[in-house]
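Hi support team,

I submitted a single chain yesterday and got back a structure, but I'm not sure I'm reading the token output correctly. Could someone confirm the output below corresponds to the sequence I sent? I've pasted both exactly as they appear in my results page.

Thanks,
R.
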Amino acid sequence: MKHPFSIVFWKEVRENLRDKRTITSALVMGPIMGPILFAAMFGFIIQQQKSQSEAPLELPIIGAEHAKGFIKYARQKGVEILPGPEDPAQAIRDKKHKLVLHIDEDYGRQFRSGLPARIQMYYDASSKDSSVPVRRTRSLVEQYGRQIGALRLQLRGVNPVLGQPVFIENHDLSTPQSRAAIILALLPYVLMIGIFTGGMYLAIDTTAGEKERHSLEPLLLNPVRRSTMLAGKLAATVVFSLAAVAVTIITFKIAFHFIPFEELGMALKLDGRVMLLIFLLLMPVALLAGAVQTIIAAFSRNFREAQTYLSILLLLPMLPSIAVMVMPLKESAGMMATPLLGQNLLINQLIKGETVTALDFLLATGGTALVGAGLAWVAVKLYNRESMLFSS
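Hi R., thanks for writing in. Yes, this is the structure output for that exact sequence:
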């Protein structure tokens, strides 16, 4: 004879599988479309940045006749000089040009006198298309200035090196994987969202949904302990959450093949070992998410109300992801044991190719599992309350 736990578990699994719209939302739209859109977006950004960096720089210049030396130098560097507009500010606002240089009549006098010669650059820093041209133009002007400064010192018999008493020798310790991790900082959040959405509809249906359909009363009248019944429902919710995150990880693995990381000096190592470790890290998160969703849905009077509350709950996994992205966090045992935050930190380490210690792994999974088990216990207590039977 089957155990009551397995009977309840397989009942919920079968009923959820019959709902094609729920399965499509939980296991297809988010876990598959999310990584594809994620990869497509970053692939487009990388390709756009690459094309802007490699394309010939078009430079509209007002008063180009006042700086013939600079114009000659710019053309030698492959820059295409364009006639400048009458009103540079309006041309930028109208998006006719990404930037405009203005060289006034005093440039020649200042240049010949050995004074800093002024070149005005008009651009819109809020425009996404202007960052690369502005950076390239600024670098061009600075290189020209350094070259002219060195020639002036040489003509006066001064070694140009004397003008640079101190210099910085750069030692970049980043790796191709750690540079790729900067772009993939949102990956842990996308995985967390997959967990919370994967089992959300089942958690609602097994509590608020059954109350609304008045099918919970006869179910609880069966000679089965309510804790066993809830354990079966919760286990089904956790399984669908884990299925969603597994599909998400696999889809990311496939989608990342289409992002040209190598062209930007980046690399991503998402092999079987890393994928397995990420999945194991997220397993206790599935328990925590299922327990929280079950508790919230238990207090809801109907399916729609529970759906509203749980949609707001999706903001929860965003908080640690934002903290990891914007705050200079130094990993500690307390952070590793904090639910969701520990997973974010360790997933970022795995993406960077850093070594994850067994202690940190146990703290992250153990801390989250402990909180998840506590919330599951609270859910069991709620099922033992007679008020659970009523939807109003």
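A quick pointer for reading it: The CA atoms of residues 54 and 359 lie 46 Å apart. Let us know if anything else looks off.

Best,
Support desk
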